[in-house]
Amino acid sequence: MGIHYTRRAFEGQIKMEKQAKKEKRRLEKLAKKNAKAQEKGLVEKAEQDDKTIPLNETITLAHLTDPENNKK
Questions:
Q1: How confident is the model at residue 62 (pLDDT cuts 50, 70, 90)?
Q2: Cβ within 8 Å of residue 49, ≥6 positions away
Q3: CA distances from 23 to 11, 16, 35 (A)
Q4: pLDDT for 30
Q5: Residue closest to 53 by CA, chosen among 43, 63, 45
Q6: Is the pTM of this model over 0.85?
Q7: Percentage of the chain surpassing pLDDT 90?
Q8: What's the chain look like in SS3?
Q9: Rounded mean pLDDT of the chain?
């Protein structure tokens, strides 16, 4: 006799898969809606500024507190 698995044993896994599918569909709908809005000119593309500190630079207190650095 082999091991018999029940649905209850995989209940958590099934819920996670369903949630992932639902989230994927939601994001696809949102992307499609935003694309249509941009075509119609209702929403402008937002330009994103790169406000990150380069990896080779050491983070100092001046980076965190100086308002001139925060304007980047």
A1: confident
A2: 72
A3: 18, 10, 18
A4: 94
A5: 63
A6: no
A7: 32
A8: CCCCCCHHHHHHHHHHHHHHHHHHHHHHHHHHHHHHHHHHCCCCCCCCCCCCCCCCCCCCHHHHHCHHHHCC
A9: 82
Q: Indicate the domain borders of the chain.
A: 1-43
CA-to-CA distance for 53 and 67, rounded, in angstroms? 15
CA-based radius of gyration for the chain: 24
> What is the distance between the alpha carbons of residues 30 and 25, in angstroms, rounded to a whole number?
9
Cα–Cα distance list, 43 to 30, 32, 37 (Å):
13, 13, 6
Which tokens is 59 given? 């983070």
Nearest to 45 by CA among 37, 55, 54, 53: 37
Amino acid at 2: G
